[in-house]
């Protein structure tokens, strides 16, 4: 039994998260077009367990059941994503009204249950028609995104109090275009940088489009990690600084300061960068932070070959290498459990950006543990997940006591789901999903989070 969690502000927002491709299924039910992830999962060897998201957790047809589970938790908000290709099958042009109707129904169900809808407009699933034309390497995709944002906001803005433009542009750039581990599976390494710029431009144009349609409280969900240096040589420090620049500052600096962190880097990016930065840095109402763990980075050691993290191989010819953090427990994904890394990260953001940093939300925080129902009782006793979230909530409270202006915390995720290139091997949910029957079973962590919210702490 854990000690009571310290008290949070009365208006602190407790929420849960999910994304369209990972849970919806019904990929062609209403005229939805294919996405980059549909194509990627159709290529042999791309998904580690050989699965696909054709059904996923069947949220498209079971959304009322899932909203009822959220209402049982007592959460104040649900962060979901809108499938771009369900709304615009070709990524632009003709609007698929049936697809838009689904999100209309979902938002109505959430509102009726007292849960604030918090949609993310892009969570990695680029419409395939746009991907074939270059995807995020093509500037036109940013313009298409803005038009899509307008379509969604014109339908939903009257009931949505919290908007997210883009989720984790760093992962799309690095894993999708740089290393080829995620859709679209390109291995461009540093030639992937235009994908970063165009996603940031899409964010800025999306903010403009959302505001024009009457949307309020707009932010972005960016992944961030404290970067720890492996070793004490100048080469190790330079490697860690470069990794920090490519994974943290490359995405936060343009949004929060209106400049790229390095002039040489900016010169590699396409288009009228100086003008684009004025759009990218449009003032935000809040800034979203997705935190999972710190990263330990040092200089590469050619004799040792490449490095890896979470099953993703880092090529040996890059100017940095990711090392294992020794000591902490690990999730089933192999990620180190370092709750105080969240406090360290938030303190670092405050130090780096000062008064340019708007209020924050923790838009993702979660862990993968493959705990299933007990064969006799049916109970899912995921005590490791409880310990993980308990530790991170306490670390968050410490960060807020030190001055971090954090307004809410979203657990990833409400349901076990299709975990991208891992398939169904990794389970992040507060609710267990039997992928044969699709039965939902709230885990012990669901009860822990329900009681945390109910206690007012």
Structure in words:
This protein is 39% helix and 14% strand. It has helices at residues 20-23, 36-41, 59-73, 84-87, 97-112, 128-132, 140-156, 169-178, 193-212, 234-257, 263-266, 273-280, 340-353, 383-401, 444-454, and strands at 13-17, 77-81, 116-122, 163-167, 218-223, 227-229, 287-290, 295-298, 307-309, 312-314, 321-323, 360-364, 406-412, 431-433, 440-442. It has an 8-stranded parallel barrel with strand order 1-2-3-4-5-7-12-13, surrounded by 5 helices. The chain has a 3-stranded mixed beta sheet with strand order 6-8-11. Strands 9-10 form a two-stranded antiparallel ribbon. α14 (383-401) links the parallel β12 and β13 (406-412). α9 crosses α12. The chain is globular and about 55 Å long. The chain starts with 12 loop residues before the first strand and ends with a helix. The mean pLDDT is 96.
